[in-house]
C-alpha cells in the first residue's frame, strides 16, 4: 500500500486548522516538519495528519498550543484517548473515528460505537456521529487524503453495525394494515449502500414495511418488483456517476415510470444540483429530513 501524502491544504480541510496557522506552528514550535519531493514540493505524511488531528482535538478542549507542543507523542496519545473514551462533544467522536480509519484500528472503532450507542442509542449515534463522519470521509476521498483500503475498512465496519441494527428492529409491521410500504433500491451502477441501509433502519424502526432491493438495480427489474409489491413510496440514493449516467434523465424516467407513487431521492447527484424535479418526487437532503418525512406519514395514517 503506497504511503499517503497530504498538502497543507489537505491538513486544513481535515483538521479545521488554517494553513497559515499550521505554518506558524511549524516555525514557532517545530510541531510538524514537511517533507519535500524531488521537485521541492512540500508534503506531509500520515503521521503528520494524525498528529495535527490530535492537536486540533486537544486545542478544542482548552489545551494551549504551547503546552501541546511540549507533550511527547505518548502523552498526547494518552490525553486524546481519555477524550475519545468519554462521550462528550460529537466532534471528539468524529475525530476518534477518523483516527481509527487512518490506523485501520477495528478495536478503537468498536469502542467508540459501543460507548456512544449505550449512551445515545444507535439512531442518535448514526445521525450525530456516523453521518457527519461519512461526510468527512467524502471530503477525504475527493482530495485523495485516504486510500481505498481505509475507506473500505471503515465503510464495511459501519455497514455491519447497520445490518445488525436492522435485524434487531424486525417486528410485526409486515402484518400491520396501516403500515406504509417503502421500496428501497440503488440505480444500476450505484454501489454506495450505507445511506440506503440506514434509511431501511429508520423506516423499519417506525413500524413501516421495507422491500429492500439493494444496490445496482436494473430499471426493468425495478419495474417488475414494483408491479409485485405496489409500494407506497420508492426511495433511492444517487451518489456516484457511472459512465453515461445522467441524473436528470434518471429522475425524469423514474417520475414517468411510477406516476402514482411518491419517490424519495437523496444523494450528491441530486441534492444541491440544478435539476428539474417532477411533482411526484421529494428530495431528502439528509437523514433528519427522512425521519421527519417518515413520522409525518405515520401521523397521517393514524388519523
Automatic annotation (TrEMBL):
Keyword Kinase: no
Keyword DNA-binding tagged: yes
Boundaries of every HTH merR-type domain copy: 5-74
PANTHER family per UniProt: MERR-FAMILY TRANSCRIPTIONAL REGULATOR, REDOX-CYCLING DRUG-SENSING TRANSCRIPTIONAL ACTIVATOR SOXR
Tree of life domain: Bacteria
GO molecular function, one term: DNA-binding transcription factor activity
Pfam families: B12-binding_2, MerR_1
Assigned keywords, A-Z: DNA-binding, Repressor, Transcription, Transcription regulation
Family annotation (InterPro entries): Cbl-bd_cap, DNA-bd_dom_put_sf, MerR-type_HTH_dom, MerR_fam, Meth_synthase_dom
Protein name, as recorded: DNA-binding transcriptional regulator, MerR family
